[in-house]
Amino acid sequence: MPDTLPPCPECGADFTYAVDALLNCPSCGHEWSVVAETDTDVIRDSVGNILQDGDTVTVIKDLKVKGSSTALKVGTKVTGIRLVSGDHDIDCKIPGFGQMGLKSQFVKKVSD
User: Fold this and answer.
1) CA triplet 75, 77, 81: central angle to 5 degrees?
2) CB 73 within 8 A of CB 64
3) Tens digits of per-residue pLDDT, 53-93?
């Protein structure tokens, strides 16, 4: 297990251990959290597929559209998405609705 955890950033000891989301050093008592750098910029759809700019996705459930009396229906195909940071992490243009922000948890990537 020690070879999978990074050494302590304070004293350099290799005896670090994990407790919940924190790493601990028994030598100097330092505690720190490690965020996986590869997962911070990755946006995934509802089933775990990695999304990229320009992908085509489908909506997996009916979504109410703020400011409109109609809903975005399940199965609606959205082409040419753009990934952005924030609560709604997909910017797209949907025919009949216009420019819109979607959450990645409500879409599924269409395989090429």
Assistant:
1) 135
2) no
3) 999 999 999 999 888 888 899 999 999 999 998 888 999 99
